[in-house]
Design brief:
GO molecular function: metal ion binding
InterPro entries: Cupin_2 (IPR013096), GPI/OXD (IPR051610), RmlC-like_jellyroll (IPR014710), RmlC_Cupin_sf (IPR011051)
Order of helices and strands: EEEEEEEEE
Shape: globular
Keywords: Metal-binding
CATH class: Mainly Beta
Strand order of the largest sheet: 1-2-9-4-7
CATH topology: Jelly Rolls
CATH superfamily: Jelly Rolls
Number of strands: 9
Structural class: mainly beta
Organism: Halomarina salina
Protein name: Cupin domain-containing protein
Number of helices: 0
């Protein structure tokens, strides 16, 4: 974290951490809880996402390739690549997502289109 970054964050992500976003120099770290049945249709964005599955099961598509993922699995989606996901089964999915560069809406003074 830079000296100018005053974003409060937790230094540890524990099994019961429900959700949090930490914006650090060069990346965001999101701790996310997705309820059963949650899904995101195919989309793209400028940022690269690296998603670490902590619990639950998910189905991901990255550039037309589909995989089911579970605890310990990692999904990498480079910026500009079409992808989607859905939570499988009756249990929530908990993931840690590292986004680089930070998403536009998390950077002070920037809008979604990067201005």
């Amino acid at each position: 974290m830079s000296d100018s970054d005053s974003t409060p964050y937790t230094g540890f992500v524990m099994a019961d951490t429900p959700g949090e976003r930490m914006t650090l120099d060069g990346c965001d770290v999101h701790v996310v809880h997705h309820d059963p049945g949650t899904e995101r249709e195919e989309h793209t964005h400028e940022e690269t996402h690296i998603v670490f599955v902590r619990s639950g099961r998910m189905r991901w598509s990255v550039d037309g390739e589909y995989r089911e993922t579970g605890p310990g699995d990692t999904t990498v989606t480079p910026g500009g690549v079409t992808h989607s996901w859905e939570v499988l089964g009756d249990d929530p999915a908990r993931v840690v997502c590292v986004t680089a560069p930070p998403e536009a809406d998390s950077r002070p003074g920037l809008t979604d289109d990067g201005e």
